[in-house]
Amino acid sequence: MRLIIRGVFWFGLYLTLILFPLVAGVVFFGDQQAASPLIYLGIATGYIALALMATELALVSRFGGVAGAFGLDSLLQFHRQIGIASMAFAVAHPVLLIADRAYTMSLLVPSGAAPWPVSVGLVAFVMAALVVGLSVYRRQLRLSYGVWHMTHGLLSIALIGFAAAHVLGIGRFAALPVMRALWVIYLLFFVLMFLRYRLFRPLSLMHRPWEVVENRPEHGQSNTLFLRPVGHDGFRFEPGQFAWMGFGRSPFSTDQHPISFSSNGDIPSHDGTIAFTIKQLGDWSTEVVPNVEPGTRAWVDGPHGVFTIDREEGAGYVLIGGGVGITPLYSMLQALETRGDVRPVFMFHAANDYDDLTFREELEAMAERMPSLTLVTVLLRADDSWEGERGFVTADILARYLPPTIYRRFQYLICGPGPLMDAMEEVLPKIGVPSDRIHTERFDMV
Amino acid sequence: MNHRIVSTVVMMIVAMFIGATALFAWAATIVAPPESGAAYAPENPHPPSRRTESCLDCHTPDQGTIPVTHRNYPVETCAQCHRQAPRVLVPHSVGMGDARCPLCHGEPARDLGIPVSHLRYETGECLLCHPVDPDSYFKQPPPAGLSLSYAAPIPHVTDDIFTDCSYCHHLGPRRSLPENHRDFALETCMDCHEPGVTEADNQ
Asked: Considering the entire predicted model, what is its pTM?
């Protein structure tokens, strides 16, 4: 209930922040602001676009309260989809203007004769298109994550600056001093939020370095990195959570990656060592991670995330993992074993083939030790000797193992490739699992 | 949180914001009467001889003489949208000076009357923008007051006491004739205006 109240609070605050410029515009409306209805619509879409883009800075600033209410992966998904929507509003802004006054189109052609407020607006628009376009098509453009991450941040800040100059220089409503003052305060708030994330947060991590103590190759082209806190006690985390991790001399590097913990955060006499398991999927995970040597300095910003059994009470748990998505689920299983939890747990472990099964020996050993754990391994490709399930995880496979009388009261935690999670989000409601008991973790946003 | 729930929430929010833009446009339209969009920006009526580099002394957002959105437009960019208006040349002699222009052109909505937008100009500065057509320098204008259109018929009978126009249509302080008729004698009314109603019509 408390979580719902927090969610409603943040949602209300979000709507208030986005709609604030429009409300202020109506409140301080003057005769000088009079225009045609299409122009009013154009102004409103421009304000909404800029407010959405400015708020995007705050959404990814790892703001604890927001992430705690919705989960950082949900926020990232929200960030991505709202980013695309904000671009649609940004496109509507000049289109509505031109629809009302076609002759203004000549101003949009870059030339020395164009007034500067128009030119900076055009620059902001192009930057916004780049921010969204590079994010959506990063893989097709073969842009490395590190370069994308850096340009994403820089372009975002720059576009907010240019768009703010555009509003203050040409804005119909921003001609009023009170609106100008409100706009400056409004935008400064978001820039401060961003600085908190890019500047203050790394500063606080400066005194909390970590060191790689072991780099262990795993099945499925993965590596488990064991990290030890240096000069501090580390932290505890809830099973299933993740942290932003990066290497380098300082935590100010933008080359940080969200990685789930694969270790048990629940060991009573924990010495602070944590583990991340990383599959070779991208440039960083393929070129950097396998070659990390013990003794390498690392920076860990965490724990984050709400994809954890500790926040989802149920009669039992159904964990569905594919590929490296097994990582947070393995962390959960370790915690359940440590706690001696007797509730039924069903682990559906999907992979392309037998060699792709990360942690297969560990999970089999765990199934031997835990009577409450049912381990179901599903392989897409297997030879004739394979006695387990084959193909994709389907409703039929689930039905073969889940107890028919009680499975609707279990909590379902799914982590893996996008198609697996899409399929489960479609299949589970069809077999009667309520949507609020289906939890997914997606990091593959760009 | 479920991926689908997030997508649904995003769609709801976007729909809400689209509604908010429409609501904003509606509220703004209610508060201030909107001006309609135009296919072209207003043309620049100033002839080159009258244009100066100090356009923006008169055309300022504060005075309401240009839109507030133009407040940071440099003067060099005006011509980007505002084309030069074609000049209207005076097709007859102006030997009497432009103080006499209002005699014929003083009333809007009359034949060759000035545009309503010109009412704010002082009498006597017409020729600053409207020079004489050199080809018509010696051409005399038609007599003042002569309308180019058909004169309105008299809307009443014209016999008995109505024979004398001055009985009702006064000259002098209580003048009831149009401004551009002040040079006409009342005996000349029927030179242009024909009786529109006869005794037979009344019966």
From this structure: 0.70
